[in-house]
Each structure stands twice: as structure tokens, then as C-alpha cells.
């Protein structure tokens, strides 16, 4: 219960009321009250004693007080104080206008029913629908107003002389008390009438907040007569459904019951012998059950609400049970109140829409039904026809993306794919403000839904399909499933079941029940996906986002001098630093998008002794040699992925519409020369294999069959490969 103390308005130079606004709180709910006044409002005294907290005395025209509430209120109470009439000398009159949540004048019958304490007073309904209380006698009394009929958004009160006199006496109003209607999404539509309470664009009924269909079954094979019946009662004892058993066979009833606690299912036997009619006989086939979709409902003690066989329970037996709204992720926040129903860090509003056709909420709700106009098929006519979003199911597994922990069915959880590899933050399991978004992803973790934006999903290859919906996140032609390192292919995932219904197929689901990251993240918050070059923690990426190659016209040093990489063929002899001339065993190429993290890196001439700029893929490695390598890493030479050169100023990513990457491979990993700089040949680890097409990969497996089962059998890299933080300590400005 909240209280509005009218004394806060008394800020005028003479202590009179002035217009203003204030925020009133009621537990977790608040409303801004904007007040405006005409006439003189102040405490009213008579003979040195206060007779009214806030009003006027000897008013000849009108005093008006208008209160607007940003969030609707309910259960409004206050008193009209010291109401009386002295005949033609003084006559008090109060007129009430109250408006509902839609700004419509509340019906006069409801206003009249809210008035009590009348004594020599009359109540009149005016032509405009307002209600007037007028004193008709000298007896002084307080008239109470207590409206409990619904929501209120505005109250207007007018104090003026009644019909019997030209001025009023002294009268006023008390403080106002009221409840602030809960409004979770802050759209000024109370939750009780809001068809989209959390404002995610998905209707409450589609998020499991609608009625539940309960099936009542009686099997009375040995039943005779019409003595048995059943009832379902709410926690207040009101009957919400009932039926009479009239057949000795199987009878069923489907009844619709809203969410709630402490429901009672009661079986009544007016004859008093339980199910059946012959006392003491065994009626093994007689029984009853209460079920949802074929599953027996459990009572609040965990016992099934069912009975098979003769039940000698006297006149009745009953069970207490709850019907809780759906809470998919088990975080204690029902889906219809939860901005992130699967707890993967991506807002339901984002996951419910397509990647390319998503529409942000407008913040406008023209018909006041609680559904944003952006998602309302009938934005000006109320709830009828307001259909909300039709949630996406990217992988067509029957689990909508906003409830699916692996929306693209690639075996990598959405929470991992929605974040960068280097910036990954594991969920905390804490939701301070109870909006359903883990504090790790909540921009406003203590203030409810306001400002809660969740993760902005990554799109590695810039194809307008976010990684969590993209089965080839890096656009390299190899599925994320093959690159994840789970040891299963897409066919196995597609054929697998999903016993716990979390959207992660059983073949890659190592955790029974709801775990937003399964085993993709360990207990320390580290991602466990394949990272062949070990650079994911230092600016690089996991294999499913990595590509290692040269670009067109990179000049490779051969026995015939420098030649463009695209002209090289199997058998050509290439100069290597460690093993002289070596024949190329395999070549490959791949054209992909040249934007985002896949944009190639241009290394300035001279950085590594290269005679001209060299353009390579972000994960392609260059050889660094010098005293610092010996001093810091006890190695005369080390390899640095190109992406780790960006901090030095000697390299930058260059976006282009598309880029063709080329690979050359030898019997072992080699240091070769491109544009005069020492660099690497292709290394077919999981990461390297992810950069080639299926046909090229099959060719590789023919040449190197051991790679099919274990790419690491190819051997180590030719030099130690630095991580990002290690590369940053080197002087690359030479």
C-alpha cells in the first residue's frame, strides 16, 4: 500500500499548493504522480484547529485537484473531510471524476458504490458521468471513498459551493492511499491485463502463462448408480470445474484451468463407500486420475493424483496441487515474465525473430493491450487479433530458438556462439532484479526490465546470420559441427533424440537437465571447444571461427624464383628455411566473405623483411626472429598469427566484399617465404582442415590418411606459436 501525502504540494510562498510531480513506491512498483491545482489548496483550520488536511474554506468559485498516475493504481481510498452545509450561508459540494487505465471515465455506478459515510448528504450522477456529493445538513461528517473496481490512471476532484449557498464552508481531502498495479515491463499497462507482461513481443499465452488443460478420467467398470462426482476448487474454495460420473465405463473430461497455487481435486461419493457400491468388494478396475497431456499430475506431496482399484474413502477424498506457469530454464522466473527464457544471454525478443527481418520494439502501444505496436496485428483495436511474434525455430527441431540452447543444432551452445571467443563471459547464475537475464549479461542488473539488453550476438562471417543460427560461422565451407571437436558429425546430431528437451541433442549433451553451456564450458568458465593453435584466449579464435591461408598474388619463393601462390601446383619445389627445396604435396583454395573477423590482414612492407605489403588471413602466422625471441621465449624464432600484429601499427585488417584464400602443404609443416618474409605453410590441424572444402579435404585424407581420425598426427608446428599477450611484448616496429 502506498500513501500520497498532499502536504508535499504545499510549496507556495504562502504555504499554498503548487503544481508538481513525485514518485511514489509500493514495494517493487512505482508510479509518478503529476498533480495540478486551481484555486487555493492548503490545510483548513477553524478556531485554531485543523479540520481538513488539504482543501479550502469559503470558496466562491472552484478548487480543482487533478492527479495523473504514470502507472495505473488500484484500491484507491481517501476521505472528504468536514463536509457540511449551513443553509444559505455555506454549502459544501465535491465532484469526482476518475479514469481507468485507458483514460476512459469510470462508470458512475462504480463511483457511487465506492462512497460511504453519508450523513445528510446527497449523491448525484451528472450528465457528463461525474458524481457529486453535496451536504444537505449542518451535521459535520467525513465521507469515505474506497474504489476497488479496477485500475485508475487519473483522479479529478472539484470543491465548490453547493446549490444552497454561494460559498463553501471549510472542507478538504485526506491523504490518498492506493496500491500500485504491478507493471513488469513498464509499458503502463498493468500486468493483470497485459497480454505481453515482459514486453518481449511473445504473448503470455504462447509463453506458458495461459490456461492448462486438465484431463479428469474415471473408470467405473464395477460402478453402479449415480453417486460419484468430482470438483476442482481454487485456493479460495471456488469451484472452477466439476462433473458427475454417470457411466460404469470410462469417462473423461477436459477442463481449462488458469495457473495458480493450492488447487484442490476432490472426489465425492454421496453413498460413502468409495468408488463402487458393494462395501468390501474388490473393484480392481475402478479408479480415477488427473493428468496433463497423458502425464499424471502430482499433488503437493509428490504423490500421483490417481487411484486404481477399490477406494474405501468414505464420502470424499481430495488432493492439493499447483499449476505453475512454464519456467523453461528453471531460474524461478516464469517464461512469460522472463526476458531470456532459456537463459542463454540472448533476449527472447531477438531469438523469436529472424536474423534479417528483426524489428525492434517501438515503445508505442496504441490500443493499451500491453503488446507493442511492432508486433500487434491490430494495434488500435485492443487484444482481439493481437497475435504477437511467431517464434523462430532455426533448426526445425520443434524447440523455438528462444527456448533452445542450440538453435542451429551444430552442437555448440548459443551462449558460446553469441559471444566473442576472447570476450566470453560465463553466466553467473545470479539474477538480482529477477527479470530472467543473468547479471553477467544485464546492463541494469538491479533495476528490473528497464535497460536490460542481453548479449548482442556475434556474426563472424558477416553474412547477416548470427553464429548461434549459422552452421558455418566463419563461412569457410566447413560446418561448425565438424570444427567443434565433439567427435560427431551433423548426421549423428540430426538423428539423435533430445531427452531433456533443452534443444541440445543427446549425442552431444553431456549434462542431463538445463545447463546453458553443457560441456562447452568447464567449471572455471573456459570454453572447451577445439583450438588447434591455442590462440583463442589471446585475441585469436576457436577452430570453428578460424581460417589460415595466403591471398591472391602472394609471391612464394620457389626453385624458379618468386611465383604467385595461385600458380603453384603439386610437385613444384618451394624453398624452405629448414629443409631446403621441398615438393608441394597438396594445394587448395577457398573464396569467402572478406568482412568482419574474416577480413584479411595487410602487413606493411619491411615488418618481417617483406619487400612489399603481404595480405594473409587473420590466423596466418609470420616468423619473428631476434634477440627478444631468445630473451623472452628461449627460442631464436617464433610464429605470430597476423591478427596479433594489429596492435603494433604495422598491420591492419582490410575489408573487401570477398577474398580467395590459398593453401600449400608439404609432408611436414614448413617455414617458407612470401613476398620475402618468412612465414608458414598450411598445417592441417582441426583448424586448418576447417578452411578447405569437403572435396579438397577428401583429397588430403587420401594423401595423408592418418589425418582423417586425428589431424594432430601431422606433427607440431615448425616454430613455437605465440598467444596474443605474448606477441604484444615484442617490438614489431623494426
Describe the 3D structure.
This protein folds into 4 domains: 2-180, Jelly Rolls, CATH 2.60.120; 211-323, Immunoglobulin-like (Sandwich), CATH 2.60.40; 334-529, no CATH class; 543-727, Beta Complex (Endonuclease - Pi-scei, Chain A, domain 1). Helix content is 7%, strand content 31%. The chain contains 10 helices and 38 strands. The strands form 9 sheets. Strands 1, 2, 3, 4, 5, 6, 7, 8, 9, 10, 11, 12, 13 and 14 form a 14-stranded antiparallel sheet that branches. Strands 15, 18, 20, 21 and 22 form a 5-stranded antiparallel sheet that branches. The protein is elongated, with a radius of gyration of 37 Å.
- First and last CA, distance: 72 Å
Poorly predicted ranges? 221-225, 276-284
Net shape: elongated
Q: What structural category characterises the helix and strand content?
A: mainly beta
Q: Note the main sheet.
A: 14 strands, antiparallel
Number of domains: 4
**Overall pLDDT score:** 83
Beta-sheet strand percentage? 25-35%
Number of helical runs? 10
Number of strands: 38
Cα-atom Rg, whole angstroms? 37 Å
Helix content: under 10%
Give the arrangement of secondary structure elements:
Elements: E1 2-4, E2 20-26, E3 29-38, E4 42-46, E5 49-57, E6 63-83, E7 92-99, H1 108-113, E8 115-116, E9 121-125, E10 131-135, E11 141-147, E12 152-161, E13 170-173, E14 176-180, E15 212-219, E16 228-233, E17 239-244, E18 250-257, E19 260-269, E20 287-292, E21 295-296, E22 306-308, E23 316-323, H2 348-351, H3 414-417, H4 480-484, H5 490-495, E24 550-551, E25 555-558, E26 561-564, E27 573-576, E28 580-583, E29 586-594, E30 601-603, E31 614-616, E32 621-625, H6 627-633, E33 637-641, E34 651-653, E35 656-665, E36 671-674, E37 677-680, H7 686-689, H8 694-703, H9 706-709, E38 720-721, H10 724-727
Parallel strand pairs: 33-38
Antiparallel strand pairs: 1-14, 2-3, 3-6, 4-5, 5-13, 6-11, 6-12, 6-13, 6-14, 7-10, 7-12, 8-11, 9-10, 15-18, 15-20, 16-17, 16-19, 19-23, 20-21, 20-22, 24-35, 25-26, 27-28, 29-35, 30-31, 30-34, 32-33, 36-37
Amino acid at each position: 500500500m502506498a500513501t500520497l501525502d498532499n502536504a508535499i504540494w504545499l510549496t507556495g510562498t504562502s504555504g499554498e499548493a503548487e503544481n508538481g510531480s513525485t514518485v511514489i513506491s509500493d514495494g517493487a512498483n512505482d508510479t509518478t504522480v503529476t498533480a495540478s491545482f486551481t484555486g487555493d489548496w492548503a490545510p483548513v483550520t477553524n478556531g485554531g484547529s485543523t479540520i481538513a488536511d488539504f482543501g479550502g474554506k469559503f470558496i466562491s468559485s472552484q478548487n480543482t485537484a487533478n492527479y495523473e498516475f504514470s502507472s495505473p493504481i488500484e484500491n484507491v481510498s481517501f476521505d472528504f473531510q468536514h463536509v457540511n452545509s449551513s443553509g444559505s450561508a455555506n454549502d459544501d459540494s465535491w465532484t469526482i471524476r476518475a479514469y481507468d487505465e485507458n483514460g476512459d471515465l469510470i462508470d458512475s455506478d462504480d463511483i457511487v458504490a465506492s462512497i460511504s459515510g453519508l450523513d445528510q448528504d446527497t449523491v448525484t450522477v451528472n450528465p457528463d458521468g461525474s458524481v457529486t456529493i453535496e451536504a444537505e445538513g449542518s451535521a459535520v461528517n467525513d465521507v469515505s471513498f474506497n474504489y476497488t473496481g479496477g485500475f485508475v490512471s487519473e483522479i479529478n476532484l472539484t470543491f465548490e459551493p453547493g446549490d444552497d449557498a454561494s460559498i463553501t464552508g471549510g472542507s478538504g481531502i485526506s491523504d490518498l492511499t492506493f496500491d500500485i498495479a504491478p507493471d513488469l515491463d513498464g509499458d503502463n499497462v498493468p500486468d493483470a491485463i497485459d497480454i505481453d507482461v515482459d514486453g518481449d513481443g511473445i504473448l503470455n499465452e504462447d509463453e506458458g502463462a495461459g490456461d492448462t488443460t486438465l484431463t479428469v478420467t474415471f473408470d467405473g467398470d464395477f460402478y453402479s448408480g449415480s453417486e460419484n462426482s468430482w470438483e476442482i476448487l481454487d485456493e479460495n474454495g471456488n469451484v472452477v470445474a466439476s462433473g458427475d460420473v454417470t457411466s460404469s465405463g470410462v469417462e473423461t473430461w477436459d477442463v481449462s484451468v488458469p495457473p495458480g497455487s493450492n488447487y484442490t481435486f476432490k472426489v465425492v461419493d454421496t453413498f460413502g463407500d468409495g468408488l463402487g457400491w458393494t462395501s468390501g468388494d474388490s473393484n480392481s478396475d475402478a479408479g480415477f486420475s488427473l493428468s496433463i497431456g497423458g502425464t499424471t499430475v502430482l499433488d503437493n506431496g509428490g504423490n500421483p493424483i490417481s487411484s486404481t482399484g477399490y477406494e474405501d474413502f468414505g464420502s470424499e477424498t481430495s488432493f492439493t496441487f499447483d499449476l505453475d506457469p512454464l519456467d523453461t530454464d528453471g531460474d524461478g522466473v516464469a517464461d512469460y515474465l522472463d526476458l531470456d527464457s532459456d537463459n542463454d544471454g540472448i533476449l527472447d525478443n531477438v531469438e523469436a525473430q529472424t536474423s534479417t527481418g528483426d524489428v525492434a520494439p517501438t515503445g508505442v502501444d496504441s490500443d493499451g493491450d500491453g503488446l507493442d505496436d511492432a508486433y500487434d496485428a491490430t494495434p488500435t483495436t485492443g487484444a482481439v487479433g493481437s497475435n504477437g511474434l511467431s517464434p523462430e525455430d532455426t533448426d526445425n527441431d520443434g524447440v523455438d530458438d528462444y527456448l533452445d540452447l542450440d538453435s542451429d543444432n551444430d552442437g555448440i551452445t548459443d551462449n558460446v556462439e553469441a559471444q566473442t571467443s576472447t570476450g566470453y563471459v560465463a553466466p553467473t547464475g545470479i539474477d538480482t532484479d529477477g527479470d530472467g537475464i543473468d547479471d553477467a549479461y544485464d546492463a541494469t542488473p538491479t533495476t528490473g526490465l528497464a535497460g536490460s539488453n542481453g548479449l548482442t550476438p556475434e556474426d563472424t562471417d558477416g553474412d547477416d546470420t548470427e553464429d548461434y543460427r549459422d552452421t558455418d560461422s566463419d563461412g569457410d565451407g566447413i560446418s561448425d559441427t565438424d570444427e567443434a571437436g565433439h567427435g560427431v558429425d551433423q548426421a549423428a546430431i540430426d538423428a539423435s533424440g533430445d531427452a531433456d528437451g533443452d534443444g541440445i541433442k543427446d549425442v552431444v549433451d553431456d549434462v542431463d537437465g538445463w545447463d546453458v553451456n553443457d560441456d562447452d564450458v568447464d567449471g572455471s568458465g573456459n570454453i572447451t571447444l577445439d583450438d588447434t593453435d591455442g590462440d583463442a584466449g589471446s585475441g585469436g579464435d576457436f577452430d570453428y571461427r578460424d581460417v589460415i591461408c595466403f591471398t591472391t598474388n602472394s609471391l612464394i619463393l620457389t626453385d624458379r624464383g618468386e611465383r604467385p601462390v595461385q600458380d603453384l601446383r603439386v610437385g613444384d619445389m618451394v624453398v624452405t628455411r629448414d629443409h631446403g627445396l621441398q615438393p608441394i604435396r597438396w594445394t587448395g583454395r577457398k573464396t569467402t566473405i572478406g568482412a568482419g573477423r574474416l577480413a584479411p590482414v595487410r602487413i606493411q612492407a619491411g615488418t618481417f623483411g617483406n619487400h612489399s605489403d603481404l595480405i594473409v588471413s587473420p590466423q596466418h602466422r609470420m616468423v619473428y626472429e631476434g634477440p627478444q625471441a631468445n630473451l623472452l621465449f628461449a627460442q631464436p624464432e617464433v610464429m605470430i598469427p597476423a591478427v596479433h600484429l594489429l596492435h603494433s601499427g604495422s598491420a591492419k585488417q582490410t575489408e573487401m566484399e570477398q577474398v580467395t584464400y590459398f593453401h600449400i602443404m608439404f609432408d611436414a609443416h614448413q617455414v617458407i617465404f612470401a613476398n620475402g618474409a618468412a612465414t608458414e605453410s598450411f598445417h592441417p590441424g582441426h583448424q586448418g582442415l576447417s578452411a578447405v572444402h569437403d572435396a579438397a579435404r577428401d583429397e588430403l585424407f587420401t594423401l595423408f590418411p592418418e589425418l582423417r581420425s586425428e589431424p594432430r598426427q601431422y606433427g607440431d608446428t615448425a616454430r613455437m606459436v605465440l598467444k596474443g599477450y605474448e606477441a604484444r611484448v615484442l617490438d614489431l616496429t623494426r
